[in-house]
């Protein structure tokens, strides 16, 4: 089971995204199969908000040899105040 929060971004020392994660490369994602993530980030990073949204593009922000990935599965973060 994925222990990350949905939408959590982590650095990894490999060049692929494991199951339950996507690379932070600005790609468009279908809302229909990523409803939880869309409910958290919306169209902050792009997409039309009707059928697609985008994950952030952090490819040029990562230190040498590591890559940013974002959790698409896991714990839905609580908004307790």
Walk me through this protein's architecture.
The strands form two sheets. The chain has a three-stranded antiparallel beta sheet with strand order 1-5-2, with no helix packed on it. Strands 3-4 form a two-stranded antiparallel sheet. Helices cover 9% and strands 22% of the residues. It has a domain at 22-71. The protein has one helix at 35-41, and strands at 9-12, 21-23, 28-30, 52-54, 67-71. The relative contact order is 0.37. The protein has 81 residues and is mostly beta strands. The chain is built from one helix and five strands.
The secondary-structure class comes to: mainly beta
Mean pLDDT: 94
Strand content: 15-25%
Based on CA inertia axes, which overall geometry fits? globular
Which regions have little confidence, pLDDT < 50, spanning 5+ residues? none
Termini separation (Å)? 27 Å
Number of strands: 5
The succession of helices and strands, N to C, reads EEEHEE
- Helix count? 1
Helical content, roughly?
under 10%
Major β-sheet strand ordering: 1-5-2
Largest β-sheet summary: 3 strands, antiparallel
* Radius of gyration of CA atoms, rounded to a whole number: 13 Å
